[in-house]
Each structure stands twice: as C-alpha cells, then as structure tokens.
Amino acid sequence: MARHGLLAHKAAILVDDASLTDGRSTYLLGEFENLHLRIKQIDIVGNTGIPNYSSKSRESQQFIEDPSEVRAKGCGKRLKSSKEKAISKCNRQCSVCGVAGHDKRTCPNLNSRSNVDTYHIDNTPNKPGEHDTFTTIGSSNFQYM
Prior knowledge:
Radius of gyration: 43 Å
Order of helices and strands: HHHHH
Helix content: 40-55%
Structural class: mainly alpha
Shape: rod-shaped
Distance between the termini: 89 Å
C-alpha cells in the first residue's frame, strides 16, 4: 500500500503541474501512455533486471468473502430442545416464599391469599347482603352507600 500511495502522490504532482496549459497536458498524456506500455512489457518479458512480483503478489493476495448471514428482522426465536427447557426451569426460585420449583406467578402462598378479599379487615367474614362503606384493601370493587 505504501508503493501505491507514493506513486499516486507523484502522479498527482505531475497532473497538477501539467494541467496549467494545453501543451503540458497533451505531453503528459502521451508520456502516461508510453509508461503504461513499458510497464506492461516488464511483466511480459521479465528481462529488464526488475524481478517479476506480479504473479507472487496474486498468490499471496487475500480475498474478502461475503459475511455470514444474519437472521432477518422480526423472525422468531430459535427452538430449544427439551433438555435446555428442563435445565432453565429447574433453577427458578419463588421471590415470595423462597422455595425452588415455581415462581411468583404460580406461588401457592399467593393463590391462597386471593381468598382474603371476602374478609373484613378484622378477619370476620362478610355476610350476604351486608354492605360496608368500603371493602377490604385487596378488592378492586369499592362499594359506596
């Protein structure tokens, strides 16, 4: 890459100087064509004393391949095997009671607390037809009289 940069820099200087007049421009174009033909002959003949590196550089040149495919946006999750599912479920521990084997959504202690709605704050059961100014804290239906 350093060779390419050096040659491009020198060529840019020549082009800047030659582009000032028409005579310089036509002369430089002719010289570029002559140089191009002479450079091609170096690779073909190979007897100019300059080593032929073109075939060696092609062999050692690395090719850039396409990247690995990426999953499309919005596609589903990968399928887990039953073994993976079993391993991920056995490590669950309930955040309410601390027992392993279930989580907060399926906790038996929370399910038993759902019956609290039918009790007053002083733990006496409501009688049918009896209305208070409020129901227990756990209920979402407030009754006003």
